[in-house]
Design brief:
The protein has 13 helices and 13 strands. By secondary structure, the chain is α/β, with parallel strands linked by helices. The strands form three sheets. A seven-stranded mixed sheet has the order 1-9-8-5-4-2-3, sandwiched between helices. Strands 10-11-13-12 form a four-stranded antiparallel sheet. Strands 6-7 form a two-stranded antiparallel sheet. The two termini are 19 Å apart. The structure holds pyridoxal-5'-phosphate. Residues 57-59, 62, 83-84, 86, 129, 155, 157-158, 179, 181, 192 line the site of pyridoxal-5'-phosphate.
Length: 372
């Protein structure tokens, strides 16, 4: 019996240990430490932004970004149906109305043709989410932003180091966010960042992130939160950021190897490897089971697990989330593509610690599961 292959295993064999020791030796372990500012400046610079605001995780980064935009309760924000719940949570928590758009059946990204049809007099912003390592087609979105005078929120949790027509993901939004959860291209264990060029947005983010502290200290005009990233997390982030390009290269090699071997399996949709605006950088290597496969993703996941392979299902569509149904949201929304891939989709192990023999082992199991 070969060993279990987890869906993700990060690589922490650069300067992580050295920088962590530095935190311990210097005593700087809280958010006041120098690695936080170094990490913020490093990532902001990488995506051509003036400000980086490091926070506790990507979910909080989204919350902070939406909070800082200062929209009015009842304002509508368009977002993809196929994304993590954090995107909609941030809107609903701030009294905004989430308006969902179905995804494109080949890229799994927000269908940019549908976005225009969902714009109303109440629409104030579009939230784009780059899905699974392939960017959203930004040109049509930017045209709508311009035409209707909307704000753009960009969720780059899955697109660190990715580019759209050569321009970094994270450089498009009025405000953009990243996640550094352990399965991202770079990780701090848990962590996130907001980036922006706007001084006011950045200042509001820093203020809300830190309990809305004022001068004199401990007197507060608003209810902030503690969303600060620690120096310990940022130290890992600085070390990881040093190797982002190498990590992306490895993720692309993993993706290419899967593409090459799995294209022989019929009736399995593989990720789009290349468009005219970007090469996939494979945050994950995802599959959608074709209609002739008699079982769904939940069943496939069990079969992979029984053969020692960790996999994960696709996102559950925002318009189908029980919590939002209970609130009476999305009662008229139907997103057939997102709803189909949510039951037919899963992704395979593709962590940076996965070696070629591991990929081949996963591919062999794919043949056993899909072409027994
Ligand atoms: C698109 C997207 N946005 C936001 C998040 C939330 O990030 P976190 O897990 O750091 O809260 C994730 C998490 O994977 C994500 O995939």
């Amino acid at each position: 019996m070969t060993s279990f292959i987890p869906v993700n295993e990060p690589l922490l064999d650069g300067n992580e240990r050295k920088y962590l020791n530095d935190c311990i030796d210097s005593g700087w372990i809280s958010a006041e430490g120098p690695y936080v500012r170094r990490f913020e400046a490093g990532l902001a610079d990488r995506v051509h932004r003036r400000h980086g605001i490091a926070v506790t995780n990507g979910t909080d980064a989204l919350d902070l970004a939406i909070w800082a935009l200062n929209l009015e309760p009842g304002d509508e924000v368009i977002l993809p149906a196929f994304t993590i719940i954090s995107c909609a949570n941030a809107l609903v928590r701030h009294g905004l109305v989430p308006v969902v758009v179905d995804c494109d059946p080949s890229t799994w990204n927000m269908d940019t043709d549908v976005v225009r049809t969902r714009i109303s007099a109440k629409t104030k912003a579009i939230m784009v989410v780059h899905i699974y390592g392939l960017p959203v087609d930004m040109d049509p979105i930017l045209a709508l932003i311009e035409e209707f005078g909307l704000q753009l929120v960009e969720d780059c949790a899955e697109a660190i180091g990715q580019t759209y027509r050569g321009r970094p993901c994270g450089s498009f939004g009025d405000i953009s966010i990243f996640s550094f959860y352990a399965n991202k291209h770079i990780t701090t264990g848990e962590g996130g960042m907001v980036v922006t060029d706007d001084d006011n947005l950045a200042e509001r983010c820093r203020w809300y992130r830190n309990l809305c502290f004022e001068n004199p200290r401990f007197r507060h005009l608003e209810m902030g939160r503690n969303m600060r990233m620690s120096n310990i997390q940022a130290a890992v982030g600085v070390a990881q950021l040093e190797r982002l390009d190498a990590f992306i290269e490895r993720k692309r090699m993993i993706g290419d190897r899967y593409q090459e071997r799995l294209s022989a399996i019929g009736n399995l949709q593989l990720p789009v490897s290349r468009t005219d605006y970007a090469d996939n950088h494979y945050w994950v290597f995802a599959l959608v089971l074709g209609d002739r496969i008699a079982f769904d993703a939940a069943c496939a996941i069990e079969r992979f697990a029984a053969k020692g392979i960790g996999t994960r299902p696709f996102f559950w569509p925002i318009n189908q989330q029980p919590v939002f149904k209970r609130m009476g949201l999305f009662s008229d929304d139907y997103c057939p593509v997102a709803e189909r891939i949510s039951v037919r989709g899963l992704y395979l192990p593709s962590g940076l610690a996965l070696d070629d023999s591991g990929i081949d082992q996963v591919c062999n199991v794919c043949f056993e599961v899909f072409e027994p």
